[in-house]
Amino acid sequence: MVIERIPEKDELTSPEMARYFSEMAKRYMKIPCRRVIYKVKAKGIKKGFALDIGTGPAVFPIAIIKEFPDIKFLAVDTSYAMLEVAKENACEAGITKKIYFHQATGYHLPLKNRSIDLVTCINTLHHLDDPLKLFNEIKRVLAPNGHLILVDFHRDISWPLAKLLNILWHIFFRDKKAKRGFIESFLSSYTVNECKDFLEKSELEGWKIYTKAYEMWVEC
Ligand SMILES: C[S@@+](CC[C@H](N)C(=O)[O-])C[C@H]1O[C@@H](n2cnc3c(N)ncnc32)[C@H](O)[C@@H]1O
């Protein structure tokens, strides 16, 4: 039986939380970044204009730019505090000329139709209550041969596995600021069938959806 979805309260708006999340992401997201880079490589994308939705501390677009210096990014997030930390991270990485930041929701992107070669959206879908609106907005901005790489948790994993991941989460994120744990993100995530249903109703074409353990991947 699948547990009912409980939307997560967004607490990444305070500078303190944004900085903490950034430090954790820089420490633990190296392997997830490599996996996304592997997908970018597999799609044959070496240059162009990319968009990262829900960029947080921007560790993913920064890693992609370092690997593919001819890709430029627009990184958007609703949290001003996260964007401030993301700008510092881009500066630290020496790539400020290749990444632009904008406070925006994934529902209304400040971009022209068909202007983007690659959209990435990592660990963000569970924050959004209207994935259909997000997918249609992604479709609007994607160039005709553009690609999407979306990764998030999914609510199909068993409750014992979710609890185990929660324990591991607390071991790695010892600080009391991280008290909420993995469970809240897990509970606010979508099941593969829910996500597939949104994708089927959306205008996006040529997508595929699959799971890798606790992750759900959507690509097109
Ligand atoms: C869990 S963080 C993931 C950050 C980053 N992608 C990563 O994996 O390191 C989710 C981010 O999505 C942002 N967010 C939440 N709702 C959003 C929306 N409607 N549009 C854009 N960003 C949003 C939050 O502010 C937060 O920074």
Q: How would you portray this structure in words?
A:
The chain has a single domain, classed as Rossmann fold (3-Layer(aba) Sandwich). It has 8 helices and 7 strands; from the N terminus they run ααβαβαββαβαααββ. With 220 residues, the chain is α/β, with parallel strands linked by helices. Bound molecules: S-adenosylmethionine (SAM). S-adenosylmethionine binds next to α3 and β2.
Task: Note the gap between the termini.
Answer: 29 Å
How does the overall form come out from the CA principal axes? globular
Looking at CATH, the homologous superfamily is Vaccinia Virus protein VP39
Count up the helices.
8
> Would you list the SSEs in sequence order as H and E?
HHEHEHEEHEHHHEE
Helix content: 40-55%
Mean pLDDT: 93
Taking pLDDT < 50 over at least 5 consecutive residues as the criterion, the unreliable ranges are none
Small-molecule components bound: S-adenosylmethionine
Total domain count: 1
Give me the side-by-side strand order of the main sheet.
Answer: 3-2-1-4-5-7-6
Radius of gyration: 16 Å
CATH-scheme architecture: 3-Layer(aba) Sandwich
What is the CATH topology? Rossmann fold
Short description:
The protein is of the alpha/beta class and 220 residues long. It is built from eight helices and seven strands; from the N terminus they run ααβαβαββαβαααββ.
